[in-house]
Amino acid sequence: MEKEAxxxxxxxxxxxxxxxxxxxxxxESYNQNTFNEIIGEIIFVQDNLARSNYGVLRGLHxxxxxxxxxxxxxxxxxxxxxxxxxxRKNSPTFGQSFQVELSAENKKQLFIPKGFLHGYxxxxxxxxxxxxxxxxxxxxxxxxxxxxxxxxxxxWNIPDEKIQLSEKDRNAISFxxxxxxxx
Length: 183
Prior knowledge:
- The protein is mainly β.
- It has helices at residues 32-38, 167-170, and strands at 2-5, 12-15, 19-21, 24-26, 46-53, 57-63, 71-77, 79-86, 97-103, 109-112, 116-122, 126-133, 142-144.
- 6% of the residues lie in helices and 40% in strands.
- It is globular, with a radius of gyration of 16 Å.
């Protein structure tokens, strides 16, 4: 597994070593010992899967303390733009975002530490996204900001008229309201 730094402190793209031949491919999508060596000791306690259609935009979401979550994301089918936004108030990269294309083809993974907003948009007909969390989901601690907030100006690579948002995301707060929830 290879670790690639992003412009955000503590957020990394991971590239597994893939063994490919005429029969197909094999790779370790996760190995606790390897992960601990390159990222640090984090114990994941919950795995999630989400299937979405083209144009679906999920996010930008966060779990508030004491239920904050680190996440490790990858795509099993299709292609997405995955986005992380640092909202740790004492971080030198506070308010900055990073995006990467994750796909079943490129097999890249994104590690997002606690204190980050997270979201993704689906670029393929469908996408199956898998992610590990180091904390359990806690509905009362769920928050987020509107994914189309102009302050962040994120390019989700989907035409506006094709974007599909949940009611929760359509009604989310703006980034300028964020100081009420930052870590």
